[in-house]
């Protein structure tokens, strides 16, 4: 297993992290479907493989994911990094959602109890909250750190401009600063490269990736014919937007590279992410031991420069304004001199 510091911090995490979203049961059986016995198998194997980074959220299976993760980590708590998240609705009242001071304090206390721990290593705000002042959210997170309930903080699913505004405010006021952005990123979803990646690299924010296989699309088990089958996960949980026909063309090349390396499409898709210098850690969520075993092998797979370049070019997102204008108007005379 490979390890890295998360962002500009001393927190060392495995480059493959284990995502526990599938733990528990609930109103979406295509997602929440791993019972206690299955979860124990997965966690034990992840630890055995060297994974020290585990991710969950208070909204996964109504908190069951946190409960199961905390119980099964047990006495190994000091050896692992646990991340959990808050922000989505967890109850019927108006105040049981969002990033207000009231809700963040209540959500943190509830997560600590479910995880059966005194502290959360990485506390992540799961979404934006346009109804709460940014200052209120950031000060509440800072207070949770100062009280020792949280060690580090991060954000998920925020636009780059908002994360930049938050980081500026945190640094100006001496508050605990974001060290992590947990974001959707895959071969068929490279939107973060437009703005978020440059921001994160410049500011020392470590990027962790959720849904690296695009909800399972890049696992290779789906075809044009079975994609809408209600019995598979994508049939009941297909919310990641991308042109499916284009996605299958990307997948065709992934399959070719997989054959070259005697690997699987999932391993190639994960290895491509691990080859990106701006990616700190990739969350792999599994509902079966065989899936986890397959994903773990991605940590050992080294794609050639030619493989990475081919996948980069094939899946490259269209440039957005002003990015294309900036590239088009770069002073090549100066750029050439500086490259010498």
UniProtKB/TrEMBL annotation:
It holds the Pfam family Aldo_ket_red. Gene3D superfamilies: NADP-dependent oxidoreductase domain. Residues 15-315 form the NADP-dependent oxidoreductase domain. Signal peptide: none annotated. It comes from the Bacteria. InterPro entries: AKR, AKR_Detox_Biosynth, NAD(P)_OxRdtase_dom_sf, NADP_OxRdtase_dom. This is Aldo/keto reductase. The lineage of its organism: Bacteria, Bacillati, Bacillota, Bacilli, Bacillales.
